[in-house]
Amino acid sequence: MKTYFVTGGAGFIGSNFVLYMMEKYDDIRIVNVDALTYAGNLENLQSIEGDRRHIFVQADIRDKAKMEELFLAYQPDYVVNFAAESHVDRSIETPEVFADTNVIGTVTLLNVAKAAWEKPDGNFGKRKFLQVGTDEVYGSLPLDEPDTFFREDTPLNPHSPYSASKAAADMFVKAYGDTYGFPVNITRCSNNYGPFQFPEKLIPLMINNALHHKGLPVYGDGLNVRDWLYVEDHCKAIDMVLSQGRLGEVYNIGGHNERPNIFIVKKIIEECAQAVDDIRITEDLITYVEDRKGHDRRYGIAPDKIKADLGWYPETAFEVGIVKTIQWYLENADWVSNVTSGAYQDYYAKMYEGR
């Protein structure tokens, strides 16, 4: 039985990955480590509560002693590091938090895994450390060059404290592979959407606001372009990189679903109004707000390498995925209410009203 050490496994992408793996494989064990900050929620994992193959531990990846204890107890074969502070707006306000968690936390995990896995001859056996990254480390693409995409050899050029922290983490993972022969892969994905996404991000924020007839805050002119990837497609890609990816390689995971932000917002308005038959959900809810500092103009990923090497491709068209996502939020209104209560309620209340 293979053991997966999944960090950040109560968050959005992490919990989707845990659920995907538990459904696909009978003969695995997942040690799920999450600090349960505001974006981590055990409600995401209710469907596997009581399953002995899933072991949840509340812990911080920066806690070296705790990580060593867990590695000794469970002897993981794989590490999948989702754990990260991920919201660009908050990184602008508190960049030091992002450097601490995303960089120091990753280095701590690398050191613990290296010490646990390394054999006297310097070999690491059939182990793997997978760092889950972001396309934001590449910077920005011009709007007037739609045939230009991020590729694995695109130079890193981060523009926000968040993307800078993720780029630094990626470089440490690469350095451990180059220096020690440590078995690593790095994946860099485009913008994910789907179930369990905390409503600070564009799609769940707009869904929640639209359903409550609140302002839909759109940065700048709304023409910033993002490539949207349905989260289940991302989970499939990570599984394939773990099992088949060539050691030391970077794999870009993109949805080939590039859309301007304002298109996304208008599509959500249309679909939400139709789903709940509410004539009050209209484009009149849109409010244009001051643009984000250092706001990248366009992201676009070419997933050619992962398709050629592993046979992966995005299966969920945006027009299908957005309807599935809206339906999930409609069916899980209590989840949204629960995750937006508590310490961050006032902060996100401002976002719901429109900034």
Summarize this structure as a short list of keywords or feature phrases.
seven-stranded parallel sheet; alpha/beta; 12 helices; 355 residues; single chain; 42% helix; 12 strands; Rossmann fold
Percent in helix: 40-55%
Structural class: alpha/beta
Low-confidence stretches: 347-355
- SS strand fraction: 15-25%
Order of strands side by side in the largest beta sheet?
3-2-1-4-5-6-10
Describe this structure in words.
With 355 residues, the protein is of the alpha/beta class. The protein has a domain at 2-195 and 228-256 and 297-315: 3-Layer(aba) Sandwich (Rossmann fold), CATH 3.40.50.720. Helices cover 42% and strands 17% of the residues. The strands form three sheets. The chain has a seven-stranded parallel beta sheet with strand order 3-2-1-4-5-6-10, sandwiched between helices. Strands 7-9-11 form a three-stranded mixed beta sheet. Helix 2 (64-74) packs parallel to helix 4 and helix 6 runs parallel beside helix 8. The longest helix has 23 residues, at 95-117. It is globular.
